[in-house]
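no rush on this but wanted to send it before i forget. what follows is a protein written twice so to speak, once as letters and once as structure tokens for the fold. mainly i need to know what kind of three dimensional shape the backbone takes. thanks a lot i owe you, the record is right below.
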Amino acid sequence: MCCHHMKEGRLKEEQVMAALFLKMLTLQTIKTGNHCIRRCIGVYIVQKTPLSLIASAPRLSHLIHAKAFSTEDTHNDRKKSKKNETTFSNIGRKISERIIHVFDENGSDLGRMHRADVIRLMDERDLRLVKRNSSAEPPEYQLMTGSQIHEERLRLREKEKAAPAPGPTLTKELTFSSNIGQHDLDTKSKQIQQWIEKKYKVQITVKKGKNAEEPENKVEEIFDQILQTMPGIATFSSSPRPVKGGKAVLCVLRPLSKKEEIAYRETQGTQKGDPVNKENGNGGI
């Protein structure tokens, strides 16, 4: 009987151990299955996601950079091409037109010529060919020596240096009181003239003095006096006008344009050559 009970006890223990083992195995299987499911779903999502969405950001930046670089290069090429077209230089034997209008090295008109005849003339006289007017019909060319081309290039270079650089006109500002002394006014007039000669506009603000005995038109007289020191150089860009509630007067002076300078010189020449003015001048001596 004792042995029988012992066997039954061992059997129960083995059954319990087997049940625990099966439970543990079941739990482990469930965990492993969930992990596999997650991995499979993740792979499926990655595979189904469009590659363009994953790589769009870096690829887009590269494309934009490449496009900007390409546009800049094209713009630079156009600028270089335009610059080369306007450069004064020998075109050699590359005459694109069949018939052209030719001038010789002395400026004499040789009339219309076939390009083959022009090339033969270049070889005979050891001359170069320069385009003068491509818009003419037929286009105009001139035969020149090497030294003539060199001298013309130097002349054009000096002309470009002498030409004023384009840009907005800058404005200088000057403020002083109507009680200013004559010496200080002369000093400021010289400063204004220097600015005008450098093609600046000058904004002048004159504050009215607190002296009750000061004439009402004193500020206008100051502006006229300043302008009279620069005949043929400056004029009013904006006439004197009250500002700051009438406590000051403002005006702007500007340089004369080329057309105005020529008109002024012509006016002065006419006045000097007028016999009536001469008689009046002699009568005043």
In short: Confidence is low (pLDDT under 50) at residues 51-75, 77-86, 275-285.
